[in-house]
Amino acid sequence: xxxxxxxxxxxxxxxxxxxxxxxxxxxxxxxxxxxxxxxxxxxxxxxxxxxxxxxxxxxxxxxxxxxxxxxxxxxxxxxxxxxxxxxxxxxxxxxxxxxxxxxxxxxxxxxxxxxxxxxxxxxxxxxxxxxxxxxxxxxxxxxxxxxxxxxxxxxxxxxxxxxxx
Length: 165
What we know:
There is one protein chain. The chain is mainly β. It has one domain (17-150): Domain of unknown function (DUF427) (Metal Binding Protein, Guanine Nucleotide Exchange Factor, Chain A, Beta Complex). The chain contains no helices and 15 strands. The chain has strands at residues 14-15, 24-28, 32-36, 39-44, 47-52, 55-62, 71-80, 84-93, 96-104, 118-121, 128-131, 134-135, 137-138, 147-148, 152-153. Residues 1-24 are annotated as: Disordered.
């Protein structure tokens, strides 16, 4: 398996190859906004970023940042080796339902307790996600929930040929 070549890092940028494994949780005061169905479904300056080697940050917003009724429990669960068991939510707004487009950890592992009462969304399933007004691109591949912004460089896990990274 070929090891990826790091993208150059410019001023004000960070490389996902400098993120740790296991991941770390980092608070942020940047303005994070999520839109679906022509409606702002969440907005906060109290998000958490989960930073993991080769992945763009996954943003977790406090549950209270979501509009009433925007999160509807969905069937199923998954397991993260670092964070524990995840539960899923549909995101609902403006007559649109994004099925299983959000997740959270009802009982995160000790190193990730900060994620309690926080929810992440797949940006590709939303109408638009922004960080400080910049429109986010979804992490390649559709499996992971990372948010790609201009201040983060890869290459990013998730695209073709990155399975073994």
